[in-house]
Amino acid sequence: MSVLSAAAVGSRVAPASGFRQACRGTELVSRVAVTPVRRQQTASSPSALFTGLVQGTAEVVSFDNVGDFARLKLQFPPSTLRGILIGASVSCNGTCLTVVETDGDTVACFDLIVETLRATNLGELVPGSSVNYERSARVGDEIGGHTVSGHVHTQAKIVEQVDSENNRKVVFELDPKWSKYILPKGFVSVDGCSLTVGETSPGRFNVWLIPETIRQTVFRGKGEGSTVNIEIESQTQTIVDTIERVMKEKGL
Question: CA-CA distance, 69 to 97, in Å (whole number)?
Fold first, then answer.
């Protein structure tokens, strides 16, 4: 499924004056609902949950990479970080990162270890780059996407993009070993976006994006050759792995 359903954002998508115009839209704003929170020194939750509903994009202020470690500093839209705590989790391009420093309610810093740099596309960031972000879900929040952990499984490359009147078809290529978990009409997290899978083949799958998804996410700047982070839907992976194990035990 997309970041927001077309019905939910019908009033915000530009009229039928062209797909590319609709994708550009107006100035991006944060979708984080601001609610009062009791201030603490650090976050106490040991884990995070995301929904795949990207809340907007943040801009890279600085990216200090020293080989096997990096400090990432991001500028968020106004009020996005209101009430956030040191130790809180934020999904950045679908990668669960821990807040280690803040500056007001618009700037936060994150530390990236060597495994994060290896397994995700965050190592490609430079000042001025954009990343999708989503603050971790809280009890009572709408789960409009699917359960996303922020643990990236692999990366994929965009190999084809085709714009039609009202949507964009995007084709991804990835290691074929992950294809068994990506099923037509199933869920997949792409750079943190909960998306519905279209067609699949070994080592490839595609999705369709509505203009609002493109406007509100890093997809507006992605093209053929761009890399994206992929997180497999956890229930699908569990079911597939369990069936394979049982069939192997039975010699089937």
Answer: 13
